[in-house]
Structures are given as C-alpha cells and as structure tokens.
Design a protein that fits this description.
Blueprint: H1 10-20, H2 26-36, E1 37-38, E2 41-42, H3 51-57, E3 75-77, E4 91-93, E5 148-151, E6 171-174, E7 177-179, E8 183-184, E9 204-205, E10 211-215, E11 227-228, E12 231-238, E13 245-247, E14 268-269, E15 275-276, E16 283-287, E17 290-293, H4 294-299
Antiparallel strand pairs: 1-2, 3-4, 5-10, 6-7, 8-9, 10-16, 11-12, 12-13, 14-15, 16-17
C-alpha cells in the first residue's frame, strides 16, 4: 500500500521500510542506514534515482525480519563468518532474488563480472555494479544511461540531506547528462512568496501524487541544465508543454515569472556552448500511460 521511495530522503526511506517490514531486524535496519549514509551523514545519492528501481522492484526476502539479507534477498553476505553484518563491504548483489515485482534482464543490469568466476565469493570477489556500488542500475536496451525514478513525496526540496544545503532532487549520470522531474503549465498557480524550501513548487509537477519514470531515449542523453543558468544556487525544471525552463528564483513574483526568457522548445546550452534539444526524445510514464517522447508533448 505504499509507493517505493527514490532514495533521496532518509525520512521517507525509513518510514517505508518500517511500514512494509514492521518486524525488520536491527541488523537489516543498520545495514540500510550504512548503505544510505556516508561520513557526513545521509547521502541522497548513495541509493540514487536509478538504483532504487532495482532495489525495490527486484524483490525482497519473504523473511519479514530480514528483507535485505534473508533468503532470496537483494544482498548476499560474503564476508567472514564472524564479520560485521551491518557493513555493506561484506555483501554482494544477489542475482537470485525472490518475490520480484518485475523481471530484470541480467544483461541490462550494470553488473560487473566476478574478478575470478572460479573462486568462491568473498570480500575480494564480489558481484557489484560496474561503479563498485552494491545495487546496480537498469538500462534501456542497447543504451548506457539508466531509467530513473522520482517519488512525488520528494520531487523538489530534500529537507533531511546532510551532504549539502540546500539539496533538490535530481539525477546526474555524468556532469552534462542530468535530469530532474518534469513540470506542467496545467493549472499553474499565481503569485506566491518563495524561499529555498518551496521555490521548486512554483509550477505544478506531472503526476503530483505518484511518481515519474524517465528514460533518456534514442540519443542516450537526458539533458544538460539542472540549475538556474543565472543563479546556480537554485534548480531548474523543464515544462513539457512548451519546453520552457523554470529557472527557480525566490525573488520572483510567481511560477510563470520564473520561466527563462531565452529557453524554449527544450533548447539547452551544452558544455561547448552549442544549442541542443536533448530532451526531445526523452520518454516518460505520465502521458496517459503512453511511452511518449517529450517532443510529442509539444505536438499534443
């Protein structure tokens, strides 16, 4: 009865696990905490918008006390017999998960091969994502940029992150391949008083009460702009009906007043200062359930 979190908020993540697994053990709770936190506290990129799809849809153990580490669980212990079972470094990704909510094609998961297939699993011989993370990402066929998932509870400002302040939800595959949830001009609100915690709400979100799933499309590239081009302290969001950019600005009188005057039809300045329309073939789940490109939004 609860949608999966997208990993951007520890409060939402913890609430979800406690609701779904009311008898979760202290070991699994501590392991989840360690997977989500770094030296500076909660890290909203540790289980990012791509890894959360695999974590939550790939299946949890039927053992309600050990959803992460029980039989058929997402994580397989490969550490020493008396090792710390709350330490992520003692686990590998389990390719034999149970209770799947969808089937993931193994060759589309970003899994690295075992260093030595003839050696038993252990701390030096683990099944991990190509980037060394415990949880892999899932790729569209023949592509290298993964599917990403945004939970409506955390589309905008992330209040409980301790990595940086302020933090706004988004996903960066590379420094110039980034995506945030999409906005809509439908029922655009009027004036308002904005600050860092509510400036991202200035225009309405698509699927405001559920989620957005986004793929990068044929060009394998989400886009380039994630921040207000004139003030990098604040995020930027694209509007699907017009391709305009909502450049967040707490000093603006309204959401429509934040629309950038020179960016429309998804135009973007890339890192070499040319104009690109990389959003045009991005795919989403919010057009009447159809897998439509962003370009199709402009034509509807």
């Amino acid at each position: 009865g609860d949608l999966p979190p997208d990993g951007s908020s520890w409060v939402v993540m913890q609430r979800h696990f406690n609701r779904c697994f009311g008898r979760i053990s202290g070991v699994d709770s501590a392991l989840l905490n360690n997977m989500s936190h770094g030296g500076g506290g909660f890290d909203p990129t540790a289980i990012d918008r791509a890894r959360c799809i695999v974590l939550f849809l790939g299946g949890f153990s039927s053992d309600e006390t050990r959803p992460l580490t029980g039989p058929g669980c997402p994580l397989q212990y490969v550490g020493p017999a008396n090792g710390d079972r709350t330490l992520p470094a003692n686990y590998q990704y389990n390719i034999d998960r149970q209770n799947r909510m969808m089937e993931f094609e193994m060759n589309r998961l970003t899994l690295a091969q075992l260093p030595d297939p003839n050696s038993p699993p252990g701390p030096g011989n683990r099944v991990l994502s190509l980037d060394g993370a415990l949880i892999p990402k899932y790729l569209p066929a023949g592509k290298t940029t993964p599917y990403v998932y945004f939970d409506s509870r955390t589309y905008g400002f992330i209040p409980d992150s301790t990595v940086a302040n302020p933090v706004y939800n988004g996903y960066a595959h590379t420094s110039d391949n980034v995506i945030r949830p999409y906005k809509t001009l439908a029922n655009a609100p009027g004036g308002g008083s904005f600050n860092p915690t509510n400036v991202a709400e200035a225009l309405r979100w698509h699927n405001p009460d559920t989620f957005q799933i986004i793929a990068a499309g044929q060009d394998d590239h989400f886009g380039n702009i994630a921040f207000n081009p004139d003030n990098n302290d604040y995020p930027a969001y694209f509007v699907t009906e017009s391709g305009q950019l909502m450049a967040c600005n707490p000093s603006a009188a309204s959401g429509p007043a934040m629309l950038h005057p020179t960016i429309s039809q998804f135009q973007e300045r890339s890192i070499n200062s040319s104009w690109e329309n990389t959003h045009l073939d991005n795919l989403s789940n919010f057009n009447d359930g159809r897998q439509l490109r962003m370009e199709d939004n402009l034509q509807l």
